[in-house]
Amino acid sequence: MKTRLSVNINKVALLRNSRLGNYPDLFQFAKDCEHFGAQGITIHPRPDQRHIRYSDVPILKALVTTELNIEGNPTPDFVNLVLDTLPAQCTLVPDAENVLTSDSGWDTIRNKSLLRDTVDRLHNAGIRVSLFVDPIPEMVNGAKETGADCVEFYTGDYAKLFSIDREKAVAPHIEAALIANDVELMINAGHDLNLKNLAYYKSAIPNLAEVSIGHAIVADALYYGIENVIQMYLHQLKT
Ligand code: PXP
Total domain count for the chain? Predict the structure, then answer.
């Protein structure tokens, strides 16, 4: 299966926000990523707007020609933003307000009614919905019960263990992916994926639809430039 590369551009917004103005130009960066071959753009507006601002979102929606994926915690403000924007995909993430980065997935059983209501509202607007989950069988089955279309597996723990024992690192992802395949949930993945650990993940996971990658792509671009980096990540996904 072809796996889409969705570039998370939050880090570029963070750099921009460290000064006044729009440099680096977030919108040009999104267009260039698409031009260089990325099949999607991901943004994760957080409540403190420290990287993507709510005001960036309609501008990005107007210019993205691949798939816009908006990630976030389904607060009323966030859900209204998504419903006003109508992205191709919305990924619901259980972020606490002041968290540095998303570091675990939903408990899809305990949060079933919140998730089901949100999935219904987003589906009524024609938006594909993904739930950020740890690779745990019960959480995948719970995601299915909310009516979501996809799960996004949290790969932070995979990335941590990869250099020590890659087979052990990927094992829970394979098990959870087989369940997702069985119940017909699409599979996305993200967090701490990079040029070292991406190809192995892609080769191990049956039917990986999308990876969203931000931190490593932007960091690698400091050395190689964004055009080269997108090619390098696309190459990892060909294996
Ligand atoms: N997926 C989710 C839900 C995230 O919150 C993030 C980070 O914003 C990513 C993927 C991308 O992670 P990274 O920046 O480590 O590539």
Answer: 1
Q: Closest ligand 1 atom to the C-alpha of 132?
A: 3
> What is the distance in A from the centroid of ligand 1 to the CA of 191?
4
Evaluate: CB of 190 within 6 angstroms of ligand 1. yes
Element (H, E) at 4: strand 4-8
**Start-end of H helices in 101-225:** 112-124, 137-145, 156-162, 166-182, 198-204, 215-224
* Nearest of 54, 59, 98 to residue 76 by alpha carbon: 54
Question: How much is the pTM?
Answer: 0.97
Cβ within 8 Å of residue 226, ≥6 positions away: 29, 32, 33, 36, 217
Residue 193: domain span: 4-236
Domain with residue 70: its CATH number is 3.20.20.70
Give me the tens of pLDDT residue by residue for the chain, a chain 239 residues long.
999 999 999 999 999 999 989 999 999 999 999 999 999 999 999 988 889 999 999 999 999 999 999 999 999 999 999 999 999 999 999 987 666 667 889 999 999 999 999 999 999 999 999 999 999 999 999 999 999 999 999 999 999 999 999 999 999 999 999 999 999 999 999 999 999 999 999 999 999 999 999 999 999 999 999 999 999 999 999 96
